[in-house]
Structures are given as structure tokens and as C-alpha cells.
Amino acid sequence: MASFNPTQIFGDEVTEEKGENARLSAFVGAIAVGDLVKSTLGPKGMDKILQSASTGEILVTNDGATILKSIALDNAAAKVLVNISKVQDDEVGDGTTSVTVLAAELLREAEKLVEKKMHPQTIIEGYRIANNVALKALAKIAVDHSNDKAAFRKDLTAIARTTLSSKVLSQDRGHFAELACDAVLRLKGSTDLSHIQIIKKSGGKLSDSYLDEGLENAKILVANTAMDTDKIKIFGARVKVDATSKLGELERAERDKMKAKVEKIKSHGINCFVNRQLIYNWPEQLFSDAGIVSIEHADFDGVERLALVTGGEIASTFDHPETVKLGHCDLIEEVIIGEDTLIKFSGVAAGQACTIVLRGATEQLLDEAERSLHDALAVLSQTVREPKITLGGGCAEMLMAKAVEQEAPNVAGKKAIAVESFAKALQQLPTILADNAGFDSSDLIARLKKEIYDGKTTSGLDLMTPGGGITDMREKGVVEAYKLKRAVVSSAGEAAQLLLRVDNIIRSAPRKRERM
Predict the structure, then answer these.
(1) Secondary structure (3-state) at 130
(2) Under CATH, to which class is 15-144+415-507 assigned?
């Protein structure tokens, strides 16, 4: 009897995982990523050192998105979680660890239900119901103080303090919260953080950092033009003369050409010329004789920014002065920070620009301080745009979990069990906060749950007192942006539902290049 050979439809190097195996692979990968970053969550979270295998470069961070995008992952489901943390970072700027951990916890709960033979589509339907209930409960507890300027400023400072409490800047969070608020309020509602320049200078300590109105790096420009045509610089050019007088004529012609260019620039009626390229001695002398300050050799970062903050445009031709928009500022002076001399432009036309100068002991510390401050600035700028706030310390998660649990009895069939599982996943976030602080999470969460169920809607975890406790989050000033929390819950819910739909993982080898 002939043996039966099943038709092979995939190539030799293609592997396929089906059904339960594929789902298990998705669960394991996602849960592993959640476990990797969950120790960094909250005010007592720890940092991770990431070292590049090729360059040996070291990164010390507790930022979820930075950790996940810096490591190479092979698991497809793990990459989905990396993507949601990246989107959270791009959209809101903070909550990157929370969104990853919540998605992983939702899948951990789903794995238990799949083991009990519940169909993934039933779990998805339950999760979708629970997600909507949680978001409605979150919207209900959100408050908006944007009509009261003083109260809104207080909210913004509290949000910045809460965001920074889990970062390297936590010890000086009061100082940096004020810096971040001052910087963001100058933006007047814009979310364009390019107006806020961060200069990192090693030396001093973190608390020596300060905000300055319109400080710019010395290498900046409002023009991008060659000011060295007194040199013949065409690559490979050769000039042959039969007398030294002819050489003198050539040099004179070049000098006259440069003088004509300087005259055109002077005709703009300026008293400061900032150029991207070098300014040679001859044109510099001509500017000096005319009482015009010239600054040369600006870097590319400064190009757009100086034009932006001074209200000018970058010019490269000077034949039509009437069409060139000039920049304006009140004062230009040299300042020394650390070992560097910088040029300070004060009273710039665009009043929303400012610079934060960060000081610190090491490059790694300054890099992490910049990431932390950027998170706070991003969240604050989003909050100014959408001013609703909610409470931190596990309060919002517990209130959402309560709403979801109370909805479960109203859901028909097995979906109700999935709804309850969603509530359990939400409760895991405050549990992890307590675990990371070294407290008895079972006791703390039980006490917090009782307070929330007793109607105390502002209760949350106090992780700063020895042994931990439950306290009023509004009084403590533990405030978070509503937009951040909403993005965490909706993104984590959607990612979990996406991965639950998986029943097949096909890995194909890259196509080999055919040799001619």
C-alpha cells in the first residue's frame, strides 16, 4: 500500500505554529515583556542598564518605551507590545510602562480563561464590554479646572510632580515640576516642544538646573551663505598666471566680490549677522567697521530655532532686502556654562521660547534626566490642550475595576467571566506599585478596594510613608492627566484583543539573493 505524503505548501525554511501553540507563544511573549518592565513602574520602581553589544554604549533608564525599543525581540506578540508603548510615547509622552504592563496582565488573565476552554472570541467580546465601561467610569471621575488659572496651574504642577516621582528626577521633583510648568505655559497651548531647548552640561548637581528665557547655543544662524569667497575653493581648480600682478588682480576681484556681498547684507539695516558657515577675517572686519556683530559657524540644530524664536527667516541671497524678514531680540550677551561659552538672546520676538539648562554628574544621568523631563513636558503640553485630570496612586484603576466588576452581573453568558478578568487586570497596576515599593500588596489592595467600594472616590496608595498606607490622592496632589490614563486603557485593551485573535504564527525565512 502506497504511503500518503501530505502536500507541502510552505518552503523548507518556513515554520508554522497553529492553534493553541500559536496562542501560547503570543501569551508567553507578551507576558514576558510585561514582566521585563513592570519592576520600573511607580515611584519606587527600579532602573535598568542597557549595554550595546557592538559599541559598548551604556544607557541607564526606567522609561518603558526606551527600554523596549532598545532591545532586540524575536517574539511577534512582544513586538506588538513594544509598538503600543511607542505609540503611547508619541501620543502622550508618558505611561509607556503602564500600557505595556496592563496589556500583559490582560493577556495573563485571558490565558487562564483559554485554559478553561473559553473561546478567544468570547473573551474578546467580554473585554470589549469591560473596556467601554472602564473608559466611561474614567471620564466620569475626570475633572477640569482650566477656568480657574491658579487651580489649573496647581493641577499642572501636581501632574509634573507625579510624572517625575517615578523618574531619576524624583528627589528634586518640586524644582523640576516648576521648571516644566513654566516652560509649557510659555507655549500658550502649543504642543510643539521644539520651542523648549534642553542643554545638557556635565558638572554641578541636578538641583543646579534652571530655566532661561530664550537661551541659545552659540552656534546658531539666521543666514546660510558662504562668507569665504576670498579663497578659490572649487575642488580640483587650477589657476595659471604668467605674472604675480595677475595673482594680485585675482585676489582683488575676490575681495571686491565679498565687499559687494557685505554691502548687500548691510543694506538690510541690521546690527547682528548670524551665519551657518564660516565668516573669514576680511568680511568680519567689514562687519565690525560697520558696527555689525557677526556670529559664525552655527550648528544645524540652531538654524530653524533661532529664526523661529526671533521671528526672522533664514536667508541665503541678499539682492532683495525688502523681502527678507528680520529677527528681533532685546539683548545679546555671552554666558559661560560649565566649560562652554554660549550666546544668550534675551527678549526674543516669540515669547514662547525658552531653554532648560540641565546640570548633573555624568552623561548617563543627564541623558536620563532629559528623557524624564521630556515625559513631563509632553504630558503637560497635552494637558493644556485637553485639561481634564484624574487621580493617581492606583485610584483611577480601582474605580474603573469597581465599575467593571459591577457591570459583570449584567452581562449574559460566559462573557461575564471575561469582564471580571478585565477588572482583575486593572487591579494588578496598583498591586505592582505596592510590590515595587516592597510593601504587602495583598493587604494594601484589600484596604484600598474596601475604601473605593465604600464610596471614597479619591483614595489611593501612599507609597512614601513607611509600611505604606491609604490616603486621599487629591490632598496628596497625586494627579495624572486624563488623556494619559484613557490612552493606557484603550491601547492596552485593543492590543490584548488583537493578540487574542491569533491562531496561527508563520515565520518565513528572508528570500535569498540569487547569484547570477
Answers:
(1) helix
(2) mainly alpha
